[in-house]
Amino acid sequence: MSSVVATMSISLDGIGSGHHQTEERPFGDVPEGALHRWMFETPDENRAEIDAIVAAGAFIMGRNMFGPVRGEWNRDWRGWWGADPPYHRPVFVLTHYAREPIVMEGGTTFHFVTDGIHAALERAKDAAGDLPVHIAGGPTTTNAYHAAGLVDELALQISPSILRDGLRLFDGVGPLRLQQISGRSASLVTHVRYRVLPVLDAGEPAP
């Protein structure tokens, strides 16, 4: 059975993306590079974590992470990543508007799922085989999977920035109980990985 890993780059105050996304600004009002300098400026220092982000058998993302197009698919948008996206596996995009799959170079195929997070996860698990399924974001999609209790592990890349306003990880999720698996500091980021544990009932002692 595939494990489900949510992975996201966030600021110290939990912001994973900004409002007012456009084609020129994939993360909206968040300053360019605020969350991902570690990936682009110091890739060798963070190679293991970069490789781990794309080491899934299948991926799930929200429509806003896939692109800025809203409403019906009225243009041939194929994602932010060019002809050869970094996923090289099936990617299931949550949307309210049906669209035929898009086959890209390198093994990435974008599938568009209109019947919700559970259906997307079922399809992703079927595609992933024994490899994990990664919830790739953005914050709204990741929060929906956390709120539904569908995440097994959480991998965060925490940048030393305070953004104050934007889409925040864990908004509306409710209580979570996490067990730290690993942590590592680098020059531009702190990598932390957690196991998501069942939430205790009120008054129940921790094991």
Automatic annotation (TrEMBL):
InterPro entries: DHFR-like_dom_sf, RibDG_C. Gene3D superfamilies: Dihydrofolate Reductase, subunit A (3.40.430.10). SUPFAM superfamilies: Dihydrofolate reductase-like. Residues 4-180 form the Bacterial bifunctional deaminase-reductase C-terminal domain. It comes from the Bacteria. It holds the Pfam family RibD_C. This is Dihydrofolate reductase family protein. It comes from Microbacterium helvum.
